[in-house]
Amino acid sequence: MYFFTEFRKIKNVIFCTKGEINMNQSLTELELENLRHLIGGHGTIVNKLEAYAEQCTDPELKALLQRDAQSARQSKEQLLNFLG
Questions:
Q1: Angle 14-15-21 (CA atoms, 0-180°, nearest 5)?
Q2: Cα separation values, 48 from 8, 10, 54, 60, 70, Å
Q3: Among 12, 35, 65, 84, which is least packed by CB within 10 angstroms?
């Protein structure tokens, strides 16, 4: 759960500053590299959480994993929006 807490902090910073970014400006190479890293990480998280949920027999834990996978998928889509 620590990873997800840290991710949410990072996500909040990115989306809080989105309104301040002039979207007409192109991203720097470092920003693009960081976005690619975050997007790839979210894809990995989605795949792993879905695999864990499929194997899970506890209904509450399974639902939690599925919700977290959906949240990671939505975050990935939001990050993809930065690429245009």
A1: 80
A2: 18, 20, 10, 17, 12
A3: 84
- Asked whether the whole model's pTM tops 0.70, one would answer no
Nearest residue to 39 (alpha-carbon basis) of 65, 6, 68, 78: 78
| CA 62 to the chain's CA centroid | 19
Q: Which amino acid appears at position 32 of this protein?
A: L
Residue listed under structure tokens 């920003």: 31
What is the CA 30 to chain-centroid distance, rounded? 18
Residue 68: both structure tokens together: 């977290």
Cβ-contact 77, 35 below 8 angstroms: no
